[in-house]
Every structure is written in structure tokens, then in C-alpha cells.
Amino acid sequence: MKLAITLTTLALTVATSLYSGKNQGWQILFDGRSLDGWESNEETANVFSITANGALMVEGGRAHLFWLGLDQTPATFTNFELRAEVKTTQNSNSGIFFHTRFQEKGWPQYGLEAQVNSSHKDARKTGSIYALKDVLDVPPHPDDTWFEYTIRVEGKSVSICIDGTEVNSYTEPENFIPLENRPTTRLDSGTFALQAHDPKSLIYYRNIRVKPLPLTE
């Protein structure tokens, strides 16, 4: 009996460790229980909340939720792979910013945005690297269905995958000229932010995790 209990405890420990991703270099950013490590700029209050089933619900007006990190998970990333499960609803818009930094209001001026949008009127759909290399008109996923969003950055290259299939890629040119209205929109280093876009948009996120990757020359 003691041996059976020990083996059961060991199996549960291994399963928990594998789920957390610690054995594979993954850091859990959102586990469905709290928003520890995150901070909203509160441009619109109370738009980020956790549902009873452990999803992060984004609804109510423009605001951005920034990952500021815990003691053991610094909030600055250069090369990384970020994965999140996402569910859009009809006519909703959101985005995942990376290489960004906290700001009190407005659209984030630092870093790049990976668009989240299946049926919103914006022609830039999920997988777009917003305004730099866009996926236009035809979304790579339907509304009301969970999908896995993967953003991988290595050096000056970005790969976007939906459910394991690459839908977009972008390489920042050596002579890159930033967008006129966002001169700091470029690959560098920084943190992540989730976007609440407008009062009518409703988006869900869960299982957000990141794996830092080695720096490239």
C-alpha cells in the first residue's frame, strides 16, 4: 500500500511538472487563477477579469494588460516563443504586443502587435504583424473556438503560427524605417501586453506561457 501511494504521488508530481512546463523551459504567465505579475494601465477600468472556468476575459473598452513579471520571471524578453490559447467572438478585436513596455494610456508605442481578429471590420486578421506584414481579409480561425496562438522571435525574424501551422512570417530589414506615427515600432526587447480594443469586443485568453530562447548573433 505504501509503495502504491508513493508511486501515485510521484506520477502526480511528474504530471504537474510537465503541465507547468518547467522541465521544458516554459514560464507560465497566466494560469487561470490570478493576474499576479500583470498590470492593467486602467485607461478603461475593469476590462480584464477571470472567468469561473479559468479564462482571462477581455471586454469593456480600450486598455492594455502588461506583463511586469514575478521575482523569478523577469519581464524583459528578446528571443522567445510565446503560446496562448485564444477565443474570439463575433466582431471583436484584440492583440498581443511583444517587445513593448508599460504606458499609462493609448495604443502601445513600443514593440510589435500580433493581431487577434476573425470577424471585426478591420481587414487585418489574426496572424498579422500589425501594419508591418498583414494577413488580410481571410482569418486563419473561426470565432467561438479556442485556438493556439504561437509567436516566435529569433533575432530580427518573427514567425506566427495558428494551431501549429505558420500563417505569417516577417524579417525586419537592415535598413528598416519605422512607421511614421510609431517610430519605436521595431524588434528590440521588452515585455508582453494584451489589448482590450473597444467596448464591443469580447476576447478570451488562457494558458499563456513563454519560453526564452538563446540570443542570436
Content-based structural category:
mainly beta
CATH class: Mainly Beta
Percentage of residues in strands:
35-45%
The total strand number stands at: 13
- Separate helix tally: 1
According to CATH, the fold-level topology is Jelly Rolls
Q: Which descriptor suits the 3D outline?
A: globular
The largest sheet is: 8 strands, antiparallel
How many structural domains can be distinguished in the coordinates? Answer: 1
Gyration radius, rounded: 18 Å
Structural description of this entry:
- The protein has a single domain, classed as Jelly Rolls, CATH 2.60.120.560.
- It contains 1 helix and 13 strands.
- The chain has one helix spanning 2-20; strands spanning 27-30, 38-40, 48-50, 56-59, 63-67, 80-88, 94-100, 112-116, 147-154, 157-162, 165-171, 191-196, 202-212.
- Strands 1, 3, 4, 6, 9, 10, 11 and 13 form an 8-stranded antiparallel β-sheet that branches.
- The longest helix is centred in the first third of the chain and has 19 residues, at 2-20.
- Mean pLDDT is 89; it is low at 1-21.
Q: Which features does this protein show?
A:
disordered N terminus; 36% strand; 217 residues; mainly beta; Jelly Rolls; eight-stranded antiparallel sheet
Give the gist of this structure:
The chain is mainly beta and 217 residues long. The chain has 1 helix and 13 strands.
Topology:
Blueprint: H1 2-20, E1 27-30, E2 38-40, E3 48-50, E4 56-59, E5 63-67, E6 80-88, E7 94-100, E8 112-116, E9 147-154, E10 157-162, E11 165-171, E12 191-196, E13 202-212
